[in-house]
Amino acid sequence: MKARVEKLFRLADPKPDAIVLANAVDPHLDGAFFWLFDVPSGLFEGSFAVAHSDGELDVWSSVLEADTARAAAKRDPHVRIHEFRAPSDLDEELRKQLTGTTTIGLHYAEITHATFERITKALPGASWTDVSAPVRKARVTKDAIEIERLEKAAEIGSKVAKEIPGMLENGMVELSLATEMNYRMMHHGASGPSFSTIVGFGPNSAEPHYFAGDRKLRSGDSIVCDFGAYYERYASDITRSFHFGKRDEELKAVHDKVEEAQHAALALIRPGVAAKELHLAAQRVIDASPWKGRFTHGLGHSIGLRVHDGWGMNDRSEDLLEEGMVITVEPGIYLPGHGGVRIEDDVLVTKTGYRFLTTAPRGYREVAA
Ligand code: GLY
Ligand code: MN
């Protein structure tokens, strides 16, 4: 997309003459390739692109997704599609395209070491510059198309979050709930989950990055469901916590405290505010409670083509919020061996504050066993 290619070149310092983005094999696909070449589906393993400072983009696609690539290029007059037959074509194609080009940008953050070595060997006369910092900066503020897709991905997550209470059954295992959630996301229009769906019952809900397993749901359990949808390559990330059956007064109080911490952070959101101030605001609320020290991770992260896309928000974050950023705000309290609560929303930073992209209810919810 011309505007995105130009944005990247504007931010690059030093300015390369061209930028090469090269995919290896899934999951080693470069997010910047899909940011510059706006193509809604297709794997594009082994594909590569050359971005030019005038906004034009040359893309090499394999036959496996050539029709999709050509359809995308029809919508974008600044993209030229070429077909490659085998991954070994990359060296020759780049030599044809770039011999004589002095300075070439590469996305060190996402290119594999093997591809880096091949490309630099194929063009021995060039000098190389890392464009990771400008790519990150360019991608963290979203344009209107990106916001629309992120909103749609978030809407799918919210729909499923609202349906979770109706899916809970005494004795079901975490994997059954995760399977049903993944099914519902696709049923509501997702191309798939944006990461491995986290469902933790009881003590498992106290581990933030637990994967769903075979723990059975029992009365008295807290439940953490952290999941997200991909919609036209853009991700959502939402966490809702529930309580099943017999009331646990401590877990109820924990839920209220996590909500309060989330409010404290959200209240600060506007352009120019340091991301770490949001984290510290949530941490202060939790550390002033009986659960001091039980908020054990960063408050959130920027989200886009990947669920963790750009930067993370913690007490050391250097980033300032800007209009057009989309971030998660996800405080949690974890009581090992007992249970946990996390509440996570995706929000768009606006000119004067923020707008929720995820909208499912956040309050304490007890589901009868
Ligand atoms: N949704 C998982 C995480 O943000 O770490
Ligand atoms: Mn998250």
Structure in words:
- The chain is of the alpha+beta class and 369 residues long.
- It folds into two domains: 138 residues, Creatinase/prolidase N-terminal domain (Creatine Amidinohydrolase, Chain A, domain 1); 224 residues, Creatine Amidinohydrolase.
- Helices cover 34% and strands 21% of the residues.
- It is built from ten helices and 20 strands.
- Strands 4-3-2-1-5-6 form a six-stranded mixed β-sheet, sandwiched between helices.
- α1 crosses α6 and α7 packs across α8.
- The protein starts with a helix and ends with a strand.
- The mean pLDDT is 96.
- Manganese (II) ion binds next to loops.
Shape type: elongated
Q: Kindly report the average pLDDT value.
A: 96
Strand content: 15-25%
DSSP summary, beta strand count: 20
Which ligands appear in the coordinates?
A: glycine, manganese (II) ion
User: C-alpha Rg, in Å?
Assistant: 22 Å
What ranges have pLDDT less than 50 throughout 5 or more consecutive residues?
none
CATH fold-type name of the largest domain: Creatine Amidinohydrolase
The largest sheet is: 6 strands, mixed
CATH architecture of the largest domain: Alpha-Beta Complex
What would the keywords be for this entry?
Creatine Amidinohydrolase; 2 domains; binds glycine; Creatine Amidinohydrolase, Chain A, domain 1; 21% strand; binds manganese (II) ion; elongated; 369 residues; alpha+beta; 4-stranded mixed sheet
